[in-house]
Design goal:
Layout (H helix, E strand, L loop, with lengths): L3 H10 L5 H10 L3 H8 L9 E5 L9 H18 L3 H4 L1 E5 L5 H14 L4 E4 L5 H11 L3 E5 L8 E7 L8 H12 L12 H6 L3 E4 L2 H12 L5 H4 L7 E4 L6 H9 L6 E3 L1 H4 L20 H10 L3 E5 L6 E6 L5 E3 L2 H14 L3 H5 L1 E6 L5 H8 L3 E5 L3 H14 L2 E7 L3 E3 L9 H17 L4 H12 L1 E10 L2 H17 L4 E2 L2 E8 L4 E6 L2 E6 L8 E5 L3 E7 L5 E10 L2 H25 L2
Parallel strand pairs: 2-3, 2-4, 3-6, 7-8, 7-9, 12-13, 12-14
Antiparallel strand pairs: 1-5, 4-5, 9-10, 10-11, 14-15, 16-23, 17-18, 18-19, 18-21, 19-20, 21-22, 22-23
Helix pairs in contact: 4-6, 4-8, 7-10, 12-19, 15-17, 15-19
């Protein structure tokens, strides 16, 4: 059995322990609760990598936990891929605390295995890392980021040789290799200067950026003449102190979107994200400064990217001059409609739109209108990337993929959500609708009129530490062991339990079961009568349990009322479960 006190003593007595980590450990000696939380388990390496609070301990992000993960990755690569040492691994990092240090530690461990590493000279967004894997033809990629988590977090994401996030089966094999490393404090490393001398460390300049920008221009739906003409669209962009600034600005300017202003205070990389409560474009407060600047210049559209540049938020100006932040579902449906309406009919015949099971069904309705097939995946863009890879063999054409949490992909030159692509396409779309005399909000109303008033929501409950992990498990077990028959007086037609890959269907004669053709995941989806659904799942990246809702009615008011009723019922049910668990 894992003994956290024994693990703490091992770290505390290790003579070569990093000085800053040793000092932090000393300061924690009299706080048993914090010490236990830092050592009670090994930081989980999930289906895409790991993410955690910075600090000493096996349950924290630090150089030793990173070294252990990289050692397992190296052994996996050497066993399962070809020409590993020559093809190497590419590493990128964002603006967070310790990001560059963790990138160098990755190279130091890989170098000890004789594996060459390409590391960017300065911060870069996640989609460029995905692109770089394909550009260099490396066996894998590593992105040091905690996405939009608070400043005290950092993370380690692994990408496969296709440029997508590792698949669950690949993750299982990597985890198995990681677990074989018994002592994270003794992982062999090669020093940086030696790596450079032996040409095992290659520092990347602007070569990949330039190649990416060339490909980015090709995703445009504009003619060559239109691309070279100046656009009548006023834009304000904030990178929220992250890594996407240069690529978004250069991507827009090469298409002659010259009426572009960047929020200067938020263009500076800052691991504290000091001008926002949360560096998450899903949170409306992240747009406060952009809205203020937008009103000054009369901007048509506001753009915001998260710290590692894979998520995009958009705020559109209404006819009243006020800005409304679009949901990920709304922007996704608008982008999809614009792309499909400007695509060749020949392409559409084999085109496939990909979305996750918790993403709005409005996207499916839009795709159906163009006779484009929609494919659902599990939550997480790794599943969309995996599906695109399968299309390479089946001959199907990827045309668009998105998830409700502000992740979009237009071109498969990257195999993960790409806020740079989405930012350029969003501006192109806004310019098109402006020429038609409509704002993006009015264009959205057109979609609602055509397909119904789809409305979605999400609520989350943060439950931190070991106690929180246990509470999340209790909530999921309760919903499984005592299945609901209705939610907010709406009868349940189907319950989809992705942990056992089984769908229970309720009909007039009782119930029956069907198999769900998707990988297993700890998630429950309740499909209700009258075009509604509710999904419950623990977050894979944060200490949260999330509940997603989707409804469709003939009016905004009816959809809002229905959504509120579903949310209230689920919130109350979860509160009762937690109260009974005390």
């Amino acid at each position: 059995m894992y003994n956290w006190e024994k693990s703490f003593q091992k770290w505390h007595s290790f003579q070569n322990l990093d000085l800053s980590l040793q000092q932090e450990l000393t300061s924690l000696q009299n706080d048993k609760t914090k010490l236990e939380d830092a050592f009670y388990k090994e930081l989980t390496f999930g289906t895409g990598g790991m993410r955690g609070v910075l600090g000493p301990g096996t349950n924290r992000m630090n150089i030793y936990v990173v070294r252990r993960a990289v050692n397992g990755l190296a052994n996996y690569l050497l066993k399962n891929t070809v020409n590993v040492k020559d093809r190497g691994v590419v590493v990128a990092y964002d603006s967070r605390y310790m990001s560059q240090e963790f990138a160098v530690e990755t190279a130091k461990v890989l170098g000890a295995h004789g594996i060459k590493t390409h590391v960017f000279e300065s911060l870069r967004p996640t989609p460029l890392l995905s692109f770089a894997v394909r550009y260099f033809g490396t066996v894998a990629g590593v992105m040091i980021t905690a996405s939009h988590n608070p400043p005290e977090y950092n993370g380690f994401k692994v990408y496969n040789e296709d440029g997508g996030q590792i698949t669950p089966s690949q993750a299982e094999q990597i985890i198995e290799e990681i677990q074989k490393t018994e002592d994270e404090l003794l992982v062999p490393v090669m020093e940086k200067d030696v790596l450079e001398q032996e040409e095992l460390l290659d520092w990347i300049g602007n070569e990949v950026d330039n190649a990416y920008l060339e490909q980015l221009k090709l995703i445009s739906k504009l003619s060559f003449e239109e691309q070279d003409s100046e656009k009548d669209l006023k834009i304000v962009f904030t990178p929220l102190h992250g890594a996407a600034n240069d690529l978004v600005v250069n991507g827009l300017r090469q298409l002659q979107f010259n009426q572009l202003e960047v929020v200067k205070e938020q263009a500076v990389p800052d691991p504290e994200f000091s001008t926002v409560d949360s560096p998450n474009p899903e949170e409306h407060q992240a747009f406060t400064m952009a809205i203020s600047q937008g009103k000054k210049i009369g901007a048509d559209i506001l753009l915001g990217t998260d710290p590692d540049g894979d998520r995009l938020g958009v705020a559109a100006k209404g006819v009243d001059g006020e800005y409304q932040v679009l949901t990920g579902n709304q922007l996704g449906a608008l982008l999809l409609d614009y792309i499909l309406s400007h695509s060749n009919h020949t392409v559409l015949k084999s085109a496939r739109m990909l979305k996750t099971v918790v993403t709005s069904e409005l996207g499916r309705a839009v795709a159906d209108a163009y006779d484009v097939k929609t494919i659902n995946t599990l939550t997480g863009f790794k599943y969309i990337g995996e599906k695109i890879h399968q299309f390479d063999a089946t001959g199907e054409t990827f045309i668009f993929g998105y998830e409700e949490s502000y992740g979009y992909l237009i071109s498969s030159m990257s195999r993960d959500k790409d806020a740079v692509q989405a930012a350029v396409m969003a501006c192109e779309m806004a310019s098109y609708w402006k020429q038609q005399g409509k704002t993006l909000l009015e264009a959205l109303d057109v979609l609602y009129e055509q397909h119904g008033y789809f409305l979605e929501g999400m609520s989350s409950l943060t439950l931190k530490g070991k106690a929180g992990t246990d509470q999340i498990a209790t909530i999921m077990e309760s919903f499984r062991n005592e299945p609901l028959e209705e939610i907010a007086s709406y009868k349940i037609e189907k319950i989809e339990d992705y942990l056992v890959s089984e769908r229970t269907i309720f009909d007039g004669e009782g119930k029956k079961s069907e198999t769900i053709e998707l990988p297993k995941e700890n998630m429950l989806k309740f499909i209700l009568r009258n075009d509604s659904w509710v999904t419950l799942r623990p977050s894979g990246t944060e200490p949260k349990i999330k509940c997603y809702y989707g409804v469709c009615t003939d009016s905004k008011e009816d959809s809002q009322q229905k959504l509120a009723a579903l949310k209230e019922t689920m919130d109350n049910k979860i509160a009762v479960i937690l109260e009974n668990d005390k």
